[in-house]
Amino acid sequence: MTTPFDASHFRHALGRFATGVTIVTTTMPDGTPVGLTANSFNSVSLSPPLVLWSINKRSRSLEVFETSGRFAINVLCADQMPLAARFASPVPDRFEGVEWRSGRGGMPLFDGCVAWFECDLAFKYEGGDHFIFVGEVMDLHHCDRVPLLYAGGAYGVPTPHPDIALG
Predict the structure, then answer these.
(1) How many angstroms separate the most distant Cα atoms in the chain?
(2) Which end of the chain is more exposed for a tag (fewer CB within 10 A), N or C?
(3) Number of folded domains that form the chain
(4) Which has the closest alpha carbon to 71: 101, 100, 96, 108?
(5) Per residue of the chain (167 residues), what is the pLDDT tens digit?
(6) Which residues pair with 102 in a beta bridge?
(7) How far apart are CA 8 and CA 31, in angstroms?
(8) Residue 78 belongs to a domain with what CATH number?
(9) Could you count the other beta carbons within 10 Å of the beta carbon of residue 70?
(10) Cα(145)–Cα(138) distance, rounded to whole angstroms?
(11) Domain for residue 141, yes or no?
């Protein structure tokens, strides 16, 4: 099927939708941490608690996420923009010099996030040039910090709507 638009036009239209920013993490069999920045995170179900994210089929981290069987979603706060940029970059060891800890399920977690979700991989689906990973949430944490957002190719933070601010 052909479409009346190209991939670039589609990508720019998708960029109009503001999302949160996450770093999805897992570990290699030897315990080496692996992670990448993703804004494809979404909730799926409350019962059972399911979330999803997607990864490009060409990602150098794909095989590790496929074989690990678990992952963590670290939802970044506004002051973690440098962390988001680092984990979106092609540096060989994204964890070098970065503080993190292992969660109950052994997945790498970053302190200061607005939320994190440790998940067991429940399903994997093919979706065009990406794979969609659905995880069952096994543990979570959240706090009242300001989340980091991404829209229109730039990072941002939420601000109250003027009608709400006038209250």
Answers:
(1) 54
(2) N
(3) 1
(4) 108
(5) 677 888 888 888 888 888 999 999 999 999 999 999 999 999 999 999 999 999 999 999 999 999 999 999 999 999 999 999 999 999 989 999 999 999 999 999 999 999 999 999 999 999 999 999 999 999 999 999 999 999 999 999 998 888 876 55
(6) 108
(7) 38
(8) 2.30.110.10
(9) 19
(10) 22
(11) yes
139: in domain: yes
Asked whether the beta carbons of 124 and 131 are under 8 A apart, the reply is: yes
Tokens representing residue 57 in the block: 């089929």
Distance, in Å, from the CA atom of 64 to the CA atom of 144, rounded to the nearest integer, reads 32
pLDDT in tens, 116-137: 999 999 999 999 999 999 999 9
Residue whose token pair is 């969609």: 132
Supply the range of the domain harboring residue 121. Answer: 20-151
32 belongs to a structural domain? yes
Residue 1 lies in a domain: no
User: CA torsion 8→127→103→142, rounded to 10°?
Assistant: 60
Say what the pTM is: 0.92
